[in-house]
Amino acid sequence: MINETIERILAHRTVRDFEERPLSPEQIETIVRSAQAASTSSFVQAYSIIGVTDPEKKRELAKIARNQHFVAENGHFFVFCADLHRHDVIGKMEGKDVADSLESTEKFMVSVVDASLAAQNAALAAEAMGLGICYVGGLRNDLEKVSELLKIPDKVIPLFGLAVGYPSSVNDQKPRLPFEHVYHENEYQQNNAVYKEQLKQYNEEIQEYYRDRTEGERCDTWTGQMAEMLSHPQRMYMHDFVEKQGMNKH
């Protein structure tokens, strides 16, 4: 069942080091048009993409993302936004009261899903052109500042960045969770003993990956990483920010 497209998907690696070589306008347009070809709930198309080329703005975004150098140093930096602003404009154009819909949790979820589907199409298109990509969730460290930099209007949420460029180095591929742990058939698997055993086996695979990659300097487990991260809540301002933007109110 393997073909060229599936091989490319399965070969995905995150790239964090890029050549100093900008993407061409044709490459940028192809990536954005590929994003637009993604599925969208009820044809709502509730997202926008902001390309950031201003070096100073990229440096500021890199600072917000805790100084991740690849936010400033890449071929092109895209910011994917959940966007219901145009639908607010549509309501006024058509003389319809759309406020309750636009403020609903449902439409907020639609906008986040639409933007995520578009971004993955963009990533696949970039990789098909021989480029590398890295998603950047660190923009959410300070969405007030991101919104100020990018002049974000109401009913728009910057969700994440996508750094794209010509790879100068490529990491080894990180093993994903076991197929059996992710895929459930007909009903959610309820046996926690099986669940924990699968996680233990995955931990062993992750430890081997880190040992090989760091020549034995690192051997932490995936469950250990996740438990440590989740024990320190992050970005707890998010609910208030989203409401301030006029979304996810009810």
Automatic annotation (TrEMBL):
Record-linked CDD domains: NfsA-like
Looking up SUPFAM superfamilies in the UniProt record yields: FMN-dependent nitroreductase-like
Gene3D superfamilies attached here? NADH Oxidase
Q: State any single GO MF term.
A: oxidoreductase activity
Name-wise, this protein is Nitroreductase
UniProt family annotation: Belongs to the flavin oxidoreductase frp family.
Q: Where is the Nitroreductase domain?
A: 10-166
